[in-house]
Amino acid sequence: MKGPLFYSKILLFGEYGIIKDSKGLSIPYNFYNGALKVDENPSEETIKSNRGLKRFAGYLEELQQKDPNLVKFDLETLNKDIERGMYFDSSIPQGYGVGSSGALVAAIYDEYAENKITVLENLTRDKLLKLKKIFGEMESFFHGKSSGLDPLNSYLSIPILINSQDNIEPTGIPSQTENGKGAVFLLDSGSIGETAPMVQIFMENMKQEPFRKMIKTQFIKHTDACVDDFLQGDVKSLFGNIKKLSHIVLDNFKPMIPAQFHKLWQRGIDTNDYYLKLCGSGGGGYILGFTEDIDKAKEALKDYRLEIVYNF
């Protein structure tokens, strides 16, 4: 048995903001993927994944009992497959902000949900929101609270524009420029980030009036502008807004940026060689970078591993 591949994703814009109704833009990242599999000779890693699936199946059973109208699974087949040693074979790094649990959720829904909404049908807004709600409940098993966007992106494998929490739509993004000097890249922080504690810090900060005001008047404003600029292909305006966003994040989201990257973050803003922003919830994993000149950025960041995601 080998199921279809589900890809990782990158939330280009909207981390934390989408919790408070900013815009967001999420794109599939086909460099990493995962699929459900059964092997004759399981490795230690495989056995660990299989155990995780067993716990997840128990959670899905509870979810189905709690909200039978939301989603029904063929739990009998799922449990049989888990007994046979099924696991999630994935190249997606965990705790890196590129949607490792999202791909798993998408794969389980695709294989075991009854009356599932398929990618091939006419995806109305209602269907998208229903999928997002199902995926949010499923992925909560991993994160405590999930928007459902990562699995949605992985399941549909198309860019998704988030206008607000209850207004999402598939979107097209400008096609990449083959030899463009501008680029979006991933920078490996070398450590794993945990989503739940980071979201907890954000929620605590939101209780403070100055932080709330900053989110509303600065963070969301520039996030929304970045999404609009990116979709319209207005590169000049985009980089102006990304620079401001990078600055706001450095000033207000320090706990989400690994300490050894604070200076590097500031250097990008000072030199304009690159701008850094959070990839997912931060705290480790990948950091997202934007540059108008990839050669300059590579030189400035030569001690780090960069992966190019998109070329302007």
Largest sheet: 5 strands, antiparallel
Count of separate structural domains: 2
Shape field:
globular
For the record, what CATH class of the largest domain applies? Alpha Beta
Strand segment tally: 9
SSE succession: EEHHEHHHEEEHHHHEEHE
Could you estimate the helical fraction of the residues in percent? 40-55%
CATH architecture group name of the largest domain:
2-Layer Sandwich
Radius of gyration: 20 Å
* CATH fold label of the largest domain: Ribosomal Protein S5, domain 2
Give the averaged pLDDT, no decimals: 94
Question: What is the beta-strand fraction?
Answer: 15-25%
Helix/sheet category: alpha+beta
Distance, first to last CA: 40 Å
Uncertain residue ranges: none
Number of helices: 10
Oligomeric state of shown chains: single chain
How do the helices and strands line up, and which of them pair or pack?
Elements: E1 6-13, E2 24-37, H1 44-66, H2 75-83, E3 87-90, H3 100-112, H4 125-143, H5 149-156, E4 160-164, E5 167-170, E6 183-188, H6 195-205, H7 209-232, H8 235-252, H9 262-271, E7 275-278, E8 286-291, H10 294-300, E9 306-311
Helix pairs in contact: 1-2, 3-4, 3-5, 4-5, 7-8, 8-9
Would you kindly provide a brief summary of this structure?
With 312 residues, the protein is an alpha+beta fold. The protein has helices at 44-66, 75-83, 100-112, 125-143, 149-156, 195-205, 209-232, 235-252, 262-271, 294-300, and strands spanning 6-13, 24-37, 87-90, 160-164, 167-170, 183-188, 275-278, 286-291, 306-311. A hairpin with a 7-residue loop joins strand 7 (275-278) and strand 8 (286-291).
